[in-house]
Amino acid sequence: MSEITPELVRHLAALARIEVSEAEVAQFASQLALIVESVATVKAAVSDEIFATSHPIPMANVFREDVVKPSLTQAQALSGAADSESGRFKVSAILDED
Amino acid sequence: MSVLNKSAHELASMLVSKEISSVELTRAQLDNIDKLNPRLNSYLTVTHELALTQARQVDELRAKGEKLSALAGVPIAVKDNLTTIGIETTAGSKILQGWVPPYNATVVEKILSHRMPILGKTNLDEFAMGSSTENSAYGPSLNPWDLARTPGGSGGGSSSAVASMQAPLALGSDTGGSIRFPAAVTGTVGVKPTYGAVSRYGLIALGSSLDQIGPVTRNVLDAAMLHDVIAGHDDMDATSLAESLGSMTEAAKNDSVKGLKVGIIKELTGEGFQAGVSERFQEALELLVAAGAEIVEVSCPSFQYAIAAYYLIQPAEASSNLARFDSVRFGLRVMPEGAATVEKVMAATREAGFGAEVKRRIILGTYALSSGYYDAYYGSAQKVRTLIQADLAKAFEKADVLVSPTAPTTAFLLGEKQEDPLAMYLNDIATIPANLAGIPGMSLPVGLASEDNLPVGAQFLAPARQDARLYKVGAVLEKLLENKWSKSMLDFAPKLEVN
Question: Rounded to an integer, what distance in angstroms lies between the CA atom of residue B58 and that of residue B73?
């Protein structure tokens, strides 16, 4: 039995802030079950002694000079926003009323 | 021969000798786009006026005798996941429909400073997730060799534009093969540079530890010249390499492979590869041997886990990167009915704005990163990355470059794999290891498969920072093949009938 259940898909979609439809839940659950089964083969390939590589070319402590450079103006930064007011991004209420 | 069929380096010489102006050339390109694009859907946006304005400027500068760079005046197409000031940038997604970025990607700044007119923005699978362009919210691009087939993905807009003479050059991005696979199935040249060799600033991120921008062209020298335009350190990208990797244009002038050790990757030949693909691949190797190269066999056993590792790491990184599409700072906003919190607005927006494959990968990535599964999935995948790097390091002890077919098959039919994400993923078997390891790769056309008369690509890989080796071997093999054919790859392409 796959660990990818419709409940899990609904939960993951909620975590990812995607309001999936019931049809999508069913479709994703069956597709993701197959995909997860396939990618789970990585578990068999590795052991505790192998270290993890998160970045292909090792780099550490990348710095640049701490100088002010030209950047976006406030108007440019807001130019793609769906809504703005007084030079700020405008969104709906953060908290529920209750 | 029409100016449209000329290579970028030929056009560059014609511009210098004033046989043609950039305005004439750019206008001819735009006319061809107007003719072909309604059918091929290679471009999402065509920037007629901008391109002609830029062309006029470069012509004026040339007339004044100003010193210009090698590709000045040669027009170029830009993949639509690279930001461009004043030009809509959608990344193939509905969530960014109508978005006009307030900043340029570093590579866009570079082509502008080299005075290369921008013809438009090319189609791609949504956020570059896919191998066929069928995941684009704006419909698939078509392969000019056979309009029923995919031009590859994710960068199928760029490959189909370059293969159909709608642009002499294009920019692509490659996270798991999105430059090299489209090149292979359209008979064009595509290069993924070493990770960090080209700045990713302004590339709408998919998998940040995998993404790399590179050239899409019709021949090796053109790719080298474009590579030299876009490469170099950039303060705006913390993963940008500090050092220069040298001139690729010089490397592409190489004319000998004597003594070059070419390693065939055992795991990427034979079973699972279309007969016609293997046949053309073998012939290419024979040409290299006849020219003095030495063939050795190498083994990379951990490649069998590459696709699995990739489809954990990439969705994990994508799920994090795509969190920025939150309906607040840019892109779509969908208001659900009734009173809604910002969280509900985000969820409704992302439901409406993302396509199925993007949702699948975000959910998969969220799962792979979730507590309790992180070590088993994401952690193991990163360990596989270590194993793949170790296999490659060993292989490069025996060989200067490695080689395999770029893809197991020629271009597949549109719709063929659309309902089966896993089958689509398997397509990337040969290209993914380079992204996981950060090494450079080139796909070069090596002829047509006998069973379907469609292009076959060979992929060369080199150690990190040794991008020049790809151009050295690629230039020689290209010349050997063209001598054998007495023409170039795209001369085999069928004449396009569009109406």
Answer: 6
Measured in angstroms, the CA of B379 and the nearest CA of chain A are apart by 7
Peptide bond into B154 cis (omega under 30): yes
Q: Do A38 and B354 touch (CB under 8 A)?
A: no
In sequence order, what are the residues at sequence separation of 6 or more whose Cβ sits closer than 8 angstroms to the Cβ of residue A3?
A33, A36
Mean pLDDT by 10 residues, chain B (499 residues): 92 98 98 98 98 98 97 98 98 98 98 98 98 97 98 98 98 98 98 98 97 98 98 95 97 97 95 94 98 98 96 97 96 90 96 98 96 91 97 98 97 92 88 98 98 98 98 98 97 85
ipTM score above 0.90: yes
* Residue of B303, B287, B285 whose CA lies nearest to B295: B285
Partner-chain residue, chosen from B341, B383, B435, that has the shortest CB–CB distance to A94:
B341
For domain B3-299+393-492, the CATH class is alpha beta
Q: What is the rounded CA–CA span in Å between residue A41 and residue A21?
A: 30
Give the mutation candidate from A3, A46, A78 for the B interface (greatest B CB count, under 10 A): A46
Instruction: Indicate which residue of B7, B131, B154, B160 is catalytic.
Output: B154
Domain boundaries, chain A: 1-44
The beta-carbon neighbor of B350 closest among A17, A46, A57 is A17
Task: Judge whether B178 counts as a catalytic residue.
Answer: yes
Length of chain B: 499
CA distances from B84 to A85, B102, B119, B365, B481 (A): 26, 8, 12, 29, 37
Chain A residues inside the 8 Å CB shell of B348: 19
